[in-house]
Specification:
The complex is a heterotetramer of chains A (about 110), B (about 170), C (about 625) and D (about 475).
Chain B: H1 3-24, H2 28-48, H3 52-77, H4 89-112, H5 130-139, H6 142-163, H7 167-170
Chain C: H1 2-22, H2 29-57, E1 61-71, E2 74-82, H3 84-107, H4 114-133, H5 137-155, H6 162-193, H7 198-207, H8 212-229, H9 238-241, H10 247-256, H11 261-268, H12 270-273, H13 277-298, H14 304-324, H15 328-355, H16 368-371, H17 373-387, H18 393-408, H19 410-435, H20 443-448, H21 454-469, H22 480-485, H23 500-526, H24 539-545, H25 550-598, H26 603-627
Antiparallel strand pairs in C: 1-2
Helix pairs in contact in C: 1-2, 1-4, 2-3, 2-4, 3-4, 3-10, 3-15, 3-21, 4-5, 5-6, 5-10, 6-8, 8-11, 10-15, 11-15, 13-14, 13-19, 14-15, 14-18, 14-19, 15-17, 15-18, 15-21, 17-18, 17-19, 17-21, 18-19, 18-23, 19-23
Chain D: H1 4-20, H2 25-48, E1 55-60, E2 65-69, H3 73-93, H4 101-120, H5 124-133, H6 135-145, H7 150-182, H8 187-192, H9 197-214, H10 224-230, H11 233-258, H12 260-286, H13 291-311, H14 315-346, H15 362-375, H16 382-397, H17 399-424, H18 438-456, H19 459-477
Antiparallel strand pairs in D: 1-2
Helix pairs in contact in D: 1-2, 1-4, 2-3, 2-4, 3-4, 3-11, 3-14, 3-18, 3-19, 4-5, 4-6, 4-11, 5-7, 6-7, 7-9, 7-10, 9-11, 9-12, 10-13, 11-13, 11-14, 11-19, 12-13, 12-17, 13-14, 13-16, 13-17, 14-15, 14-16, 14-18, 14-19, 15-17, 15-18, 16-17, 16-18
Classes of the chains: A mainly alpha (about 110), B mainly alpha (about 170), C mainly alpha (about 625), D mainly alpha (about 475).
């Protein structure tokens, strides 16, 4: 079976991932809505996952894919907990605008 | 241009566009929908790599489970209105600047690092079939695998606890 | 045997001290006084024994008792040296000491703290003996400081009066200024010769080769020490104030013994001073000036003891004049005669004060001649002696000083002569105001006028006799003292052949004394002049009466600046230094306050910082990687 | 039998005192402190007979820290100072009721333990640990049992703690650097180190900061007066009697031999600072209104002279400094105790409120007087021996040092006698003043007897210390 990278090139994937990751970063910085921020984080995670898979193919090894699997598991747990926290924050403060969450202020 | 390359560009364009729109849409529901599209396109990338198992899992977990959670939450909070006040202009400007900065930094680094050209190895071995992955997961990565399950369990319990109404504190 | 006797000589007064400290309160006053006196008499008798022995074989007795302080280049032992000089001093210290102890039994009898008085007095004698018998400078220094301490304790004996305490403190501190000089002098000597032992020093200095400047420095420092203890310019002001102590103390410590320690020390170190003529000149000038200034202040004082005090300072000045000319034996001669008549005068004044129940102002005395004949006559004899009337003791010794001065320096001779004329004047002024014409005190006092008891008069009589015949020890021609001291003194001193020259000088001195007496007679007997009340004194007299404002000057120049500095340090510099330290803490606090503003809880800001930080780190790593 | 037994005994004593309960605490503490004194005397005896009472054992492998205690004459002299003063200090405190006395006395013994450890330790890190360990008990003693306004006290004590700790940290840095060079913290290894001039300077300065604050040398003394005033008298005694000597001892033991060239280079500055401290302390003491503060500044003046002696780097300077340390330790404890005796009766430390005590209490007056005289270094007291030797060594370096340093004998007499006059003399105060109790008398008499005996016969101490000082000097001069 022909390696797909021979046709696309690993650097394309790298650039794609980088851009995707940067869009995620941008989202985190740009939006005030905590849910959107979470979504941005998911985008960043996916950017990394994509790179994992690309390199897994590059190395012809399963390990990268295993890591993607774990990363997904963690992402699932994280989103579940994060959203639960957001729900409870919303219940208490009536807003999930991150600029309003200043309880950490020293 | 081979069809595969065209497919890749197409998918990549969708991925980036939907990712951007996710962030850019004012309505959270729209964001969520764009995000689902984004996930699907990433699953397309996985399929391109012939990683069927991951593609399936990705669709199930992300598009299925996580996005449903997002949508539910958005609806729970009744956030489907476009009532979000934007950040101050300076912050938005800053975000854009930082976005560009990060992109430049990362891209420069990858450009400057040794680019891999030419032929890639093809072992011909099967390394990403479900069977193979299952073997790897349950042999070499058995313990982390089990821990992942515990993590999910704990997350579940945590979520239940967190979203429970705090009656004792209210009193 | 000799060692034990020497130790007994030294420690006997100390035993008296211990007894009076621990048991003095339990036994009666007379017993405590008697024991105090006895212990001193024991020392006196032993001194006579040693003296007789020395006279026979002429060999000094020296022992080392134990190692005391050791520094890198030498060891100092605690040793005793009994030679001509120390025995001479011992004789009159313990002799006059015994008489004054005897006197004190009666004088202090009404004081509830009499045992303490005797304890201190014994301690003083002990330290004085230590000072005299030590075989090195450091042992002398023990005694030196010890007598200073006893002086402090005894001046402030009536401690309830803060003025007396001030006087005591002043005496101690001024002495300490001198003591610092003494210490430094010792350091210089020790550095030069690696020893402080007199005999070794004498040989070492005899070898010569030492740096003249350093020798001069040593001599100067030692002399500064002497000016402190012997009340010379510029450190003399403590002595008149020291009259706050009980009169026997003034007689013993501030007239006869302690204040002569400076002369003792200079005589002891004569081999050093002989090598430093510049310092000797300084000594002579300081002595002459002290004699003149103190005598002039004495002219107008109204406190009977103050007059005597200034007289003492003046006489000490004369002795230093002699020392400055290298005539150590002459100075020692005057020390001894002066001890006799000045002790007698002080004890006499004490008797007067005793008779008048504490009155010291001569303006309130007068006509005591009849009421107190023994006191009067003994004091009269001593006054004649101090005025330098032939053939009393003072005549011989003072005359020798003047002769020496005449030989060396005419200006100083004139100054010294003026000082002795003044002496004659103020001493007779004292006598006239106290004993002649009518009594000027209250009726109450007049009623109680009485002669003092025999315990007081006997020492007076003994001292008066000595004041008459004391000159015999060094009459021109026989000069026993000169011969006796020869082994001690490095340089030989030529005898004064009694030529016309000398007789003329004697005549001039005698005439001067008589002029002084007649002057006093004219003013206080013929005119019946009585000094005015303090407020009415004006003009230059006021300046003299106020001792040339030297105390005020010292207060202004030294005490006030130091106190001002202390206040400045305490109120300004200390808090300022404290603030500097605190400012470190304040700076940290300020930093924290600024840092707190960063932690404002704005998640957006945190995220920005985070991302930029990540970018920065990655860039840094990348750049360093490229650089490699 | 080696010196660790003393440390163990003191530590055990501390624990036993804590366990003994409030009623017995003072007695147990006294017993253990006396035991430590006896033990150290016994060990001194065996040292004099030539026995080796040092101890070396391994402790931590990485970094290499050894459990090394070096007991030469110098160290034993300081240990004896500690173990002799501790019972006296405890004895002096018997007249004061303390809340929670078991904690109090346990802390006192613990402090004694830490200070003894500091004097004995022959391993840099071990030494540093003991050095800092000594700070903890005094902090609590001053904070909990001190006097005066609590807020004020807290401020003063905290300042003291942070200030001295801050200074010590520089020393820790120096040790860390030395370790990186020598690969060991052992004293001998550090002595052998061959450092470049710049390194020595920095090491010296780091040590100096730690010691200058502890001793204290001006201008690092600002913590002192306030803490002395606010701490309970026992704390003040521990601080002034022993803890200051830790700094001075460390100068001799650690700072000078490790960085001798820097010491030689900075000598004029160091001696100048120390002597400035002498004069400054004396002058500030002149105008103090509080008895304890006055004594604090007098202490500043005296330790200035000791420090000057140390920095002359001569046999005389060092042995005089040691003599003066011991003498000052005793006399300052005695003086603070005298202040405490007055406080017990008059409940005041303001000098102006006292006066006329002499007529009420002859015994106390005599003892106080002797202490005052010892403090002004009258010949015949041990202080004189120390002061004489130190001044002599200074005069060998430069005669002006001795002249300036010697002003202490004038100014010292001035402020001490002025204080004595205002406190003890004058018209009888109407207030009653009971004469000293037996324990008070025992304490004072013991101190006075010590000072007078060694004032006349200082040879035993001099002989004990001399070999160690010679050894240190050979290291310095190599």
């Amino acid at each position: 079976m022909n390696n797909i990278l021979n046709e696309i090139g690993i650097e394309n994937y790298i650039f794609l991932s980088v851009l995707l990751f940067c869009i995620g970063v941008f989202g985190v910085l740009y939006r005030r809505n905590a849910i959107i921020v979470f979504m941005s984080i998911e985008i960043m995670l996916n950017a990394v996952n994509l790179l994992f898979v690309a390199f897994s193919t590059y190395h012809q090894d399963a390990e990268g894919q295993v890591f993607v699997f774990f990363s997904m598991a963690v992402a699932a747990a994280e989103v579940a907990v994060g959203l639960a926290i957001l729900v409870s924050v919303f219940r208490n403060l009536g807003s999930i605008d991150i600029d309003n969450l200043k309880n950490l202020k020293g | 241009m081979s069809p595969i390359l065209i497919t890749f560009y197409f998918l990549a364009a969708i991925t980036l566009a939907t990712a951007f729109l996710t962030i850019y849409s004012k309505n959270p529901i729209h964001s969520a929908i764009y995000l689902v599209l984004c996930f699907f396109s990433i699953a397309g990338h996985y399929l391109l790599f012939n990683a069927q198992f991951l593609a399936i899992v990705h669709i199930i977990v992300y598009s299925g489970a996580i996005m449903v959670l997002f949508l539910f939450t958005i609806m729970l909070m009744n956030l489907n209105k476009e009532d979000e006040v934007h950040k101050p202009r300076i912050t938005r400007l800053g975000a854009i600047v930082v976005f560009i900065l990060t992109s430049i930094v990362l891209v420069t680094i990858f450009i400057n690092s040794k680019t891999i050209m030419g032929d890639y190895d093809t072992s011909g071995e099967d390394f990403q079939s479900i069977k193979k992955l299952g073997n790897v997961l349950l042999n070499e990565y058995m313990v982390p695998f089990e821990f992942a399950s515990i993590l999910l369990l704990v997350a579940m319990i945590g979520v239940v606890l967190l979203s429970k109404k705090e009656k004792t504190e209210k009193k | 045997m000799e060692t034990n006797l020497a130790l007994l000589l030294l420690l006997s007064p100390f035993v008296g001290f211990l007894f009076n400290v621990f048991f003095g309160k339990k036994v009666s006053r007379t017993v405590s006084g008697a024991i105090g006196t006895l212990t001193v008499i024991v020392s006196f008798l032993l001194s006579i024994c040693f003296f007789a022995q020395l006279n026979q074989n002429g060999k000094p007795f020296e022992i080392s008792l134990f190692d005391w302080i050791s520094v890198h280049n030498f060891k100092l032992d605690f040793g005793i040296l009994l030679d001509q000089l120390s025995l001479l001093w011992l004789l009159f210290v313990t002799g006059i000491g015994s008489l004054i102890h005897l006197y004190s039994i009666s004088y202090m009898h009404d004081d509830e703290n009499m045992h303490k008085f005797f304890a201190y007095l014994n301690l003083f004698v002990f330290f004085m003996i230590t000072l005299v018998v030590g075989n090195n400078l450091l042992v002398m220094f023990i005694g030196w400081e010890g007598v200073g301490l006893c002086s402090y304790l005894l001046i402030g004996f009536w401690y309830k009066n803060q003025d007396y305490n001030d006087a005591a403190k002043k005496a101690f501190i001024m002495n300490r200024v001198g003591d610092l000089g003494f210490l430094i002098g010792m350091f210089v000597i020790a550095a030069l010769f690696s020893t402080l032992n007199y005999t070794e020093l004498k040989t070492a200095i005899g070898h010569g080769g030492a740096n003249a400047v350093m020798l001069g420095l040593a001599a100067l420092c030692l002399f500064i020490g002497a000016t402190g203890k012997s009340a010379q310019l510029p450190l003399y002001t403590w002595l008149p104030d020291a009259m706050a102590g009980p009169t026997p103390v003034s007689a013993l410590i501030h007239a006869a013994t302690m204040v002569t320690a400076g002369i003792f020390m200079v005589t002891r170190m004569n081999f050093l001073f002989d090598l430093t003529p510049e310092i000797q000149n300084i000594i002579a000038v300081v002595g002459a000036l002290t004699a003149l200034i103190a005598a002039s202040i004495g002219l107008l004082q109204n406190d009977i003891k103050k007059v005597l005090a200034y007289s003492t300072v003046s006489q000490l000045g004369l002795m230093f004049l002699a020392l400055g000319f290298g005539a150590y034996n002459v100075a020692v001669f005057h020390v001894i005669t002066h001890a006799f008549f000045k002790a007698c005068l002080f004890l006499g004044s004490g008797s007067v004060i005793h008779g008048l129940h504490g009155e010291q102002d001569m303006r309130n005395m007068g006509g005591l001649r009849k009421a107190m004949p023994i006191t009067f006559w003994t004091m009269m004899i001593s006054t004649l002696a101090i005025a330098g009337i032939f053939p009393f003791a003072g005549f011989w010794s003072k005359d020798e000083i003047l002769m020496v001065a005449f030989e060396h320096n005419k200006v100083l001779y004139v100054i010294a002569s003026i000082a002795s004329i003044m002496t004659a004047f103020y001493m007779f002024r004292l006598m006239y105001l106290t004993f002649f014409r009518e009594f000027r005190g209250t009726e109450e006092q007049k009623h109680h006028l009485h002669e003092s008891p025999s315990l007081i008069t006997i020492p007076l009589i003994v001292l008066a006799i000595l004041a008459v015949i004391g000159g015999a020890i060094n009459l021109p021609g026989s000069a026993w003292l000169n011969h006796f001291l020869e082994p001690i003194l490095a340089a030989k001193h030529e005898e004064h052949a009694l030529g016309t020259h000398e007789f003329m000088l004697m005549g001039i001195a005698l005439a001067g004394a008589i002029v002084g007496i007649l002057w006093a007679n004219a003013k206080y007997i013929k005119q019946g002049f009585v000094p005015k009340a303090d407020a009415e004194i004006t003009g230059f007299n006021k300046t003299i009466y106020n001792k040339y404002y030297v105390d005020e000057l010292y207060t202004f120049l030294i005490v006030n600046p130091i106190n001002g500095l202390a206040n400045f340090f305490r109120t300004t510099l200390e808090p300022a230094l404290g603030k500097v330290v605190y400012s470190l803490g304040t700076a940290a606090n300020g930093l924290a306050t600024q840092g707190k503003k960063l932690q404002n809880g704005n998640i957006g800001l945190y995220l920005f910082a985070f991302v930029i930080g990540v970018c920065a780190i990655i860039t840094y790593l990348f750049i360093t990687h490229i650089a490699q | 039998m080696d010196v660790t037994t003393i440390l163990l005994l003191l530590l055990m004593g501390s624990i036993a005192t804590f366990l003994a309960g409030d009623k017995l605490a003072s007695k147990v503490a006294l017993l253990f402190s006396l035991g430590a004194l006896g033990l150290s005397l016994y060990l001194l005896n065996s040292l004099n007979q030539g026995a080796n009472i040092s101890f070396t054992g391994s402790w931590i492998d990485y970094p290499k820290v050894a459990l090394a205690f070096k007991a030469d004459g110098l160290a034993m002299a300081m240990v004896l100072l500690t173990t002799a003063l501790t019972p006296l200090i405890i004895l002096s405190s018997l007249g004061n009721p303390f809340n929670n006395s078991k904690n109090f006395y346990a802390l006192v013994l613990f402090m004694s333990f830490a200070m003894t450890g500091t004097f004995l330790a022959a391993d840099g890190l071990l030494y540093y640990i003991f050095w800092e360990l000594a700070l903890i008990p005094i902090y609590f003693i001053a904070l909990i049992w001190g006097n005066g306004d609590a807020e004020d006290r807290k401020k003063a004590v905290l300042k003291f703690f942070i200030y001295t700790l801050g200074g010590s940290l520089f020393m820790l840095i120096a040790f860390a650097y030395l370790y990186s060079k020598a690969g060991s913290f052992l004293l001998e290894d550090l002595y052998k180190l061959d450092l470049s001039a710049t390194e020595e300077c920095w090491i010296f300065l780091a040590f100096f900061l730690a010691y200058a604050i502890k001793i204290p040398i001006i201008p690092f003394h600002t913590w002192q007066a306030k803490v002395y005033q606010k701490a309970p008298t026992v704390g003040t005694m521990l601080l002034s009697g022993i803890m200051l000597k830790m700094g001075l001892y460390s100068v001799i033991r650690w700072q000078l031999p490790i960085a001798p060239h820097a010491a030689k280079e900075y000598m004029p500055i160091l001696i100048g600072l120390s002597i400035a401290g002498v004069i400054y302390g004396s002058i500030v003491a002149l105008r103090q209104k509080d008895l304890k503060k006055l004594l604090a500044y007098s202490s500043l003046a005296h330790v200035g002279l000791i420090a000057a002696g140390c920095y002359t780097l001569t046999q005389d300077g060092l042995s005089g400094a040691v003599a003066q340390m011991i003498a000052h330790g005793f006399v300052i404890v005695g003086l603070f105790f005298a202040a405490e005796i007055i406080y017990r009766r008059y409940e005041t430390r303001t000098i102006a409120d006292m006066g006329g005590i002499r007529s009420l209490t002859p015994k106390f007056t005599s003892m106080f007087m002797i202490l005052v005289l010892a403090s002004v270094a009258l010949p015949g007291t041990y202080n004189f021996v120390g002061e004489f030797t130190v001044l002599y060594s200074l005069s060998q370096a430069n005669i002006w040092y001795a002249v300036l340093g010697g002003t202490t004998i004038i100014l010292g007499a001035y402020y001490m006698l002025k204080m004595f006059q205002n406190v003890m003399l004058g018209e009888t105060n109407a207030k009653a003043f009971a004469d000293v109790t037996t324990t008070e008398a025992i304490t004072l008499v013991a101190i006075i007897a010590f000072l007078l005996f060694f004032g006349l016969y200082p040879k035993p101490i001099t002989d004990l210390v001399a070999p160690s000082i010679k050894e240190i000097l050979t290291i310095i001069n190599n």
